[in-house]
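Interim report, section 4.2 (structural modelling).
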Amino acid sequence: MKKLASILIVMLASFALLATGSSESSSDGRVTITIGEHVANIETQSPHVAKIISGFLAENPDVDIQVSGSEVSEHLTKMRLAAQNDSLPDIIWLEQPIAKEMAAAGYLHDMTDDLESYGINDSLLPGLVHSCTVDGRDYGLPSEIMMVGFFYNKTMFDELGLSEPETFDEFISVIDSIHAAGITPIAIGARSNYSVWAFQSMLTRYGFFEKLPALESGELSWVNDDFIHFFEKVATMRDHHAFSTNVATQDYFEAKEIFLAGNAAIFNSGAWDIAAFEASPIAHEMGFFWGPTFTDGVGDQRIAIKTSGGVYCISEKAAKDPAKLDAIMRFFSYYYGEPGTKIIAEETFALPTSRYDGQIDESQHPVLSEMIKKLNDDWASTKEPFSSLSTNVGNTLFDAIFGVINGIYTPEQACQVVEDAMALER
Amino acid sequence: MKRSCISWIMFGALVVLITVLAVIPFVWTILLSFKDNSQIVNDPMGLPASFDFFNYRKALDVLDIGRMYANTIMLAAASTAAGVLITFMSSYAIARLSFRIKSLPDKLFLFLIIGLAVPVYILLFPIYRINVKLHILGTFIGLILPYIAINISFNTLLFVGFLREFPLELEEAATIDGCNTAQTMFRIVAPVMKPTFVTVVLFNAIYIFNEFPFASTFLSDSRKYTLSLMTSMFRGQYSMDYGAIIAASIMMIIPELIFYAIFQRRIISGMTAGAVKE
Amino acid sequence: MNQLRCPSRTKIILLAPTMIMYIVFLVMPLFIAVRYSFTDFSGIGKAVFSGVDNYMKLAEDRLFLVSLKNTMIIMGLSGVGLLVGSFIVALVLNEDFPGNTLSKAMIFAPYVIAPIIVGLIWGFILNPEYGLINSVLRKLGLESLCIEWIGGTKWTPVAVSMVFFWQLLGFHATIFLAGIKTIPGDLYEAALIDGCSRSRSVFLITIPLLKETIIMNVILIITGVFKIYELVVQLTGGGPNHLSDTLVSYMYYVVFTSSRYGYGMAIAVFILVISMCVSFFYLRISRNRGKEAAS
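Predicted structure of the assembly:
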C-alpha cells in the first residue's frame, strides 16, 4: 500500500512540475504582441496577415508578434471564455456583434483617439471609417470588406440570352429561364445559416436601418408589412425554383464547388472569395450584381452592403501598457498604411480595406478588378443588418430567411420568429 | 466444435454482410481521398480519375503531423495510464471492500457514474475557469486532468460491472494466504481481469485521441495541437478543403485501427491467461 | 456481497485520487454550470440572477420540444437496435474464423472516424437527390420507396438513428465481447454434453451470466443517446431550421451560436437530469429483478 501511495505522490508531483510551464517574458525593452486570429493556419488561410506581420517585424526589430488562431467558431468560443477570465490576446479578431458586446462589457480598448493620432482614419476607405462603434466610440478596425451580392456565370447567361437583372421582376424571369434550361439557378446552402448575405442587402431595401431604432425600442414589430413583403419575395424565389431541392442539406462550401464547376448559374457570396474564384476554371466568365430592387421597397433602392466584416480589436488589458499600445498602433499603421495595403492588393490579390491607388492587371485578376469597379460604382453603401443586431437576433434572422427558403416558414411566421427573439432583449 | 456445412455458410454470410455494411462508407472515404474538392462535391459517386496522393501531400505540407502524433500519443498515454490506475483502485474498493455503512459502495458507484450523463459542452466554460485559476490553461496538464476526470464514470461502470461478474473465491483464498489488499488487487485480480483492462484502456485512449471540444478550446499554441484539431486547419471562415480533411482523417484513423486490432488480440490472449478462473 | 476487510487508511488511499479528480474537474464545474442556469448570462459580461425563468421558458420553446422529441425517437429506434445488434455481432465475432481480427477492426472502424467525415460520407449516402440509397432504389425501379432521408422534416431522426447505430455497433459489441470472454468455456462444454443446442446455451448461459455487461451497455446507450451532438451537426446541421436538432445540438446552438449561456445551461441541466433519471430507474429495476431471481 505504501508503494502505491508513493507512486501516486510521484505522479502528482510530476504533474505539478509539468504544470509550471511558460511564464511571462521579462522586460528588456522588447514588446511582444499576441494576436488571436480566426483561422487555424495563417500562412495558407490568411496569407496577407502573415505577410504583413513579417514585413512589419522586419522594420520593427523591437517588437515580437505571436499569432494563435483557430477555426472561426472555435475562435469565438475561445475569445468569449478568455474575456471572461481576463486572458484575451492583445489584438483580437471578432465578429461585430460579439465585439460590440465585449466593448459594452469593458473588455475592449476605446481606440477612437489613437486612430486619430496615428492617422489611421485617413488611410481607411471612406466607407470603412468608424466601422465598429459603441456609443460613438471606435472599438474595431475592419479586417475585410463585406461586399456582398450575386456572382453569376456570364457564359451561361449568354447562352440563354440573359442579361444582368436589376429589378425583382427581371430577376425572377432570369431565374425562370435558367430553371427551364435544367440548371440550378442559385447555389446556396442552408446549413451555413450565415450565407444569406445578398438577402440581407434585400432586407436593407425594405428600410431595415430606418426601422432599426423603433424595432429596438419595441415601437415597431418585426411583423410589419415591409418585412412581410421582403419575406414574400424570398418565398417567390423559392416557388420559382431558384434554389436546388437539396438546399437544406448543403453548406456554403458545397454550394461554392457546385457554382465553380458550372452546375449552377448564380452564387450568393462576397469579396472574401475572390482568390478562390480566380483560381477556378470560370474565373474569366464571372459577373457580379448587387441583387434585385423592389417596386414596393422603402427608400433608395440602389443601395448595397459595402461595409466592414469582422474587425480587429485591442484588449483593454493590453492598452494599459503604453509601450505595448504604441507597438500595436504602429502595427495597425503598417497594416492600413501604404506597405500593408500594397501587400494585400499586389501580393495576395484581395480587396484592401484601406486606400489603394495602384493598378490591377485585369486579364490576370478579372474578378478582383470587377469587384473594385463595383465597389466604386454609384450604388450607395449601407451596412450589414447582422452587425447591428445582437448575436441571438442576428442568427434568428438568418434562420428565418432560410426557413422561408426551406419552405418551413410562411413570411408572417418568419417575421414572428425574429420578433420573438428580439422581444427577449427589449 | 462441429458444425454442419449449411450453418457454416450461413455464418460466413452473416459475417461478410455485417463487415461489408460497416466497411462501405469506409472504403468510400478512401476513394474520396483521391479526388479534388470539385469532384467530391459534384461527382461523389464516380471513381477517382487516378490514384494520385495529392490530398495526402497537401495535408502533410500544412500539418506538422509528427509533432501532432507525439502530442496526442503523449496525452492519451498519460491520461489513460493515470485514469485507469486510479479508477481501478476506486472501483476495486467499491466492488469488493466492506464498509461500515452497507449502502456506501452503491451510493459511491451511482455518484461516480453521473458523469456519463454530462454533455461535455457544459464543462467547457467552468473547466476553463478552473484551469485559469490553477495556472494550467494551455498546458498539457490542463488537458490531462480533465481527461482523467471525464473518463472516471465510464471506467467505473466497466470496472465495477466486470468485478461484480467475477467470483470472489480467488481473492478470499489470497487473503487467507496472507496477501494484503494491494497484492491481491495487482497480483491476483488484475491479471485475471486483463480483457476488462484492455477494453477500458482501448476506449480511454481512443476517446482522448478523438477528443475535440476540450483540445480546441484549451489549447492555443499550435505547437501543442493534437490530431483531432487537424481538420480545423483546412476549414477557413469561407473555405473548406474536403480532400485534405479526408486525407488527414485517414492518416489519423489507420493507426487507431491498427492499435485496435492489436489490442483486440490481447483480449483473447488475456483470457487464456485467466483460465484459472472456475 | 462486499466482504473483503481492510484498514480504512487503505480504503482512503484507494478512493481519494478518483474522488478528488472527479470532484474538482467534473462535479465542481457542474455546479458552476447549474448556477448559471439561474441567470441571464450571455457569455460576456455580468450574469444577473433571474430565478427559474430559464426553466419556465423551456416549456414554451417550440424548438426545444422538437429536439426533445427527436432525441426520444432516436432513443427508441437505435437504443433497441444497438442492444440486440451489438450482442449478435459480439456472438458472431466470438467464434473463431479466418479474418476474425480484420472484421472486428472493420466493424469497429466507424467508431474512430472523425465525426466531420461521418457527416460528409453519410450525407452522400442519404442525400435525397443524388445519395447512394435513393440512387440504388431508383435503379431498381423502387422509386416509391425513395425517402427524403435528410433535409426533410420527417425522416431525419430515423436517418440519424441509422448512422448512430452504424457508428456505435462496434463499440458496444466490443464491450459485449469482453463480457463474453469472461464466461468460462467449460460451462458451454458441459451444456453441450448435456445435449443443449448452441442457440439454447446462449439463452441459458450467456445472457444470464452477462447481466452486468447488459446493464453497462444499456446505461451507455441511454446516456449516449442523450449526448448525441457531432453526428447531427455534421449530418444535417440541425436543419432544416432546427427541426432535426437533438437536445445537445440545440443546447450547443443556444450557448455558442446564439450567446444565450444561461438559457443553454438550463437545457443542459434538463438533459443531465432526464438522462440520469432514466439510467437510475433502469438500474433500480434491473437490480431488483436480479435480487428477486437470486432469492
